[in-house]
């Protein structure tokens, strides 16, 4: 047990010992107390940030340095970014380093994003917040690495943010996507869609649709395409089903069935109407899958033998099969290239290629729940369960199990189908 020393002058700090020995008059003369004037008249932003406001009007120095409008009179909302002159340059000092490199100089951040709802006459104002800057930094330093390849990274990491500041539909899409990634990485990844996620997602889609209905300038092509890419990832990630019975193809038919397929097809149309490929876009050299075209004269590649023989029989493949005469061929070809691969990157790239190259005929077969089309999709989902990726794994596991149950239930008498179901059933059911 330690010894507790008595509180004597010898144990007090040296300056206190000396002070206690001075006469009262000398003590009072040396002790100059600084009087602090307390004020509650500071601006709301400083109170919110818990910093001392110098109360200069119309703008205090703290808000000027931070790059926001003072809200003494309530004219501006909390932490509304300033878009005037020097404040823009000063704002740059408080941004993360990665954002400093991408925001144009002089900085012109959005102080407000005007959003259009379902009715043109119904409009709302969204105030850009400090938290949104944090989300943009997360998008650049984390989320962007999960939605593109190293070849595309430079564009998504830098150019996309620049475009988002002048194209609100892209800004909303990025914020929603990053919030969803945040939720996936949280302690409750299976939580419901938050109000903020839903807000940005809805506004992004509403404004994007409004843009597509109008005239798209050639300078807007990259922003439009980047928005389509982000919304495509969001649509694939978001799945309401909690059990396989609630997932497609088991659930009752809905207009939202296979909506991620529609978005993948929509990206191609967006590329056409937005003028991509005219030499001024970042995308023609960054998206190799878009430039892949079927070769009707090419024979079956050796890798197609990687597929189980039952696929050859069910899908009717032979040496003359091409994209033009067999709707399953392109899907089977892309699947065969990754089926025996243990490389996560190769698998994910193959999956992206698969979603981009699906022919309309194959999509129609999926919608009709054709067994061969369902089996090929189930195998793709099984491969993605083998290499889990945050925005793919949820749908791959849930709809993969649902496809297996559907085929077992309605095609259980067919021996080849039952045999082919073993691999997807095993892979999709092992994901928690």
TrEMBL record:
Keyword field contains Nucleus: yes
Residues annotated as transmembrane: none
Source organism per UniProt: Alectoria fallacina
InterPro entries associated with the record: Sterol_Uptake_Regulator (IPR053157), Zn2-C6_fun-type_DNA-bd_sf (IPR036864), Zn2Cys6_DnaBD (IPR001138)
Name of the protein this chain belongs to: Zn(2)-C6 fungal-type domain-containing protein
MF term (GO), any: DNA-binding transcription activator activity, RNA polymerase II-specific
Zn(2)-C6 fungal-type domain mapped to chain residues: 42-72
The keyword ATP-binding belongs to this UniProt entry's keyword annotation: no
